[in-house]
Amino acid sequence: MVTISDAEFTRFRDFIYETAGITLSASKKALVSGRLSKRLAAHGCESFAAYLDLILGGKVPGEMQVAVDLLTTNETYFFREPKHFELLRKFAAQAAEARRPLRVWSAACSSGEEVYSIAMVLDDVIGAQGWEVMGSDISTRVLKRARTGHYPLERTRHVPADYLRRYCLRGFGDHDGSLLIQRPLRDRVQFCHLNLMESLPKAGSYDLIFLRNVMIYFNGDTKRQVVSRVLSVLKPGGHLLIGHSENLNGINDEVVAVAPSVYRKPGGRP
Ligand SMILES: C[S@@+](CC[C@H](N)C(=O)[O-])C[C@H]1O[C@@H](n2cnc3c(N)ncnc32)[C@H](O)[C@@H]1O
């Protein structure tokens, strides 16, 4: 097994910071080495430095993305932090009542559980039309899983029983122990590859943005940049939802806290 030196770890730390804005503390040395060691073996690299040179040299197309995929942490599950989904239900009911379309962006959606949780609520409250959900992430590996809508059953523990019946198919035979999001709902959501450290594609503005449990990996400067970029596509009167363990203290004052981990952009509808 190849060991990673302090100098090599520092180079990887700089690489993932410059590429994804992710700050790795010194305690993450074992994590970097554990997650990347198979890639060294796959390419016959004798050291971590050689592997990084290979990535940066661009000689193996796609390898940089593979390294980024491996260095991101993608923990997620359906209906995580349920208060946000109660709030979503309320916003959806208001939009339906006013016959106003609702556009939602899940800005670091990992393998899609957050996106499908949002879609289930919107379909339930608003109906099949009149809403849009976009999910994006820097990792192509998790986006691939998101597009399939196919998950291990144990990850769906928090999906309400009624939604399991209406929106999910339980696997049997070879697919025993898994669950598939039903096609009509899968067809209603979109996923795209997007790095929050880069300028955003022109895709209009959103009523609601979920930016949850990704800022924990960013330092203050990166948080400031990312939040300001994300807020540039939040409609006046729209809401930004962040993870329960995150806050925007000292990060941004364009938005007003209206509940724990919920911020409103001034303007728009009262
Ligand atoms: C812990 S998951 C959070 C998933 C979901 N939002 C939730 O709360 O359950 C964090 C996600 O952020 C993504 N991520 C990290 N840096 C990113 C960046 N610069 N741009 C876009 N996504 C990023 C990771 O790939 C990962 O899937």
CATH architecture of the largest domain: 3-Layer(aba) Sandwich
pLDDT < 50 runs, ≥5 residues: none
Number of helices: 10
What is the total tally of β strands?
A: 10
Strand content: 15-25%
Q: Assign a percent range to the helix content.
A: 40-55%
Biggest sheet, in brief?
A: 7 strands, mixed
Which of globular, elongated, flat, extended, rod-shaped describes the shape? globular
Could you give the order of the helices and strands?
Answer: HHHHHEHEHEHEEHEEHEEE
Structure ligands? S-adenosylmethionine
Please give the radius of gyration in angstroms: 20 Å
- The CATH topology of the largest domain is what? Rossmann fold
- Within the largest sheet, what's the order of strands? 6-2-1-7-8-10-9
Distance between the termini: 61 Å
CATH superfamily of the largest domain: Vaccinia Virus protein VP39
| CATH top level class name of the largest domain | Alpha Beta
Q: What oligomeric state do these chains adopt?
A: single chain
